[in-house]
Design goal:
about 375 residues, alpha+beta, four-stranded antiparallel sheet, 14 strands, about 35% helix, DNA/RNA_pol_sf, Hepadnavirus_pol/RT
Length: about 375
Amino acid sequence: MEISVEIPLWNRGEDRADDNGSSVERGKDWRIDIQREKRWNGGQTKRFIYACKQIGKEEFIDTGFYLRFKDQNSQQRLNENKMIIPFRATQEEKKAYQEMLKEELEEGIVIPIQQDQVKWWNHTFLIKKLNGTWRNNLDASKLNKEIEKLHFKMHELEEIPYLANQMDYATSLDLKSAFYHIAVSPNSIPYLTFNFNNNNYAYKAMPFGTKHSTFYFAEVIESILRQIRIHLEIKVLNYCDDILLIHQDKQKLKTQSMKIMKTLKQFELTMSTDKCVTEPKQIITFLGWIWNLKEMNIRMSEERKLKMIQALKDQCNTIYKSKNVKIRQLAALIDRLNFLRTYIKEASLYLIELYKAKTQALKTGSQDGIMLINKELIKELN
């Protein structure tokens, strides 16, 4: 079968991710029937598998996402400490979560699981985004304590000025539900369980939240983009599921952008078409920032800036007035500061201290745990 990808075939030898003797169980010793040929979202097609062969990732994709435990006693410790964590939220949040769960069940992202099959329950909660919609989150912080740490480098926003030249053009691509494009290995599914309305569900597609999620997704995307960089004369910067394409020739960039979209679709990576910018521009919004390649500067839209500052003040006030603060409240504050640090250099100074406080607190609790923080620092933020 011929694929219309514009990048030629190549072969790269890759070591298996579990060559170091991971403690992942091998046998299908639990009773959820999962056919490897019929994974979520309609299954991994021949076209998809053939495309993965081209980047040396057939085995990586076939194995799927799996948890590499810290030591041989990790699973035993999890088994001894597992307990049902009920979903606690307002009626508005419960209704929103119910709708998202229904959609994920229909798409095969999550599946029902019997209680005797569960090996670990994770906390799950909602966060309201700036646009008023909700994002569901799997709090795998306690599970993460038993998972081996993997190192990788994420691209930074600060790389754009070094990657682009004045008067370059840019387009941007946004992958839809990107983390869910990788299937979970059957033996890891029972550890990715959560409880909602007294029913148990588990992730069959890789969720965001585990220590390994970002690494696995970055590995797949980087393998694809690495070959695009080699075979197409185009500059590529990606941050998880957001991709920025840069070239000095406007027409060539437009043509290459369409080819890259076509290539990504062969890996069953779908686009958020309403968020993609395929018409080359010299002023483009990427990761919430307005990049001006004519003048080589960056800014935030005034509307977004005001919303961010107000949200930041509200978070700071909530934390400052509270005697006890949930770790996830601090984590949300850190996320906003991390977003702002490209625009407000002082944000990096506050981040260092807040990261220290969060890391220390997570040593003894989960994201939903209670902690005390340096209120003088929060007062400074106000």
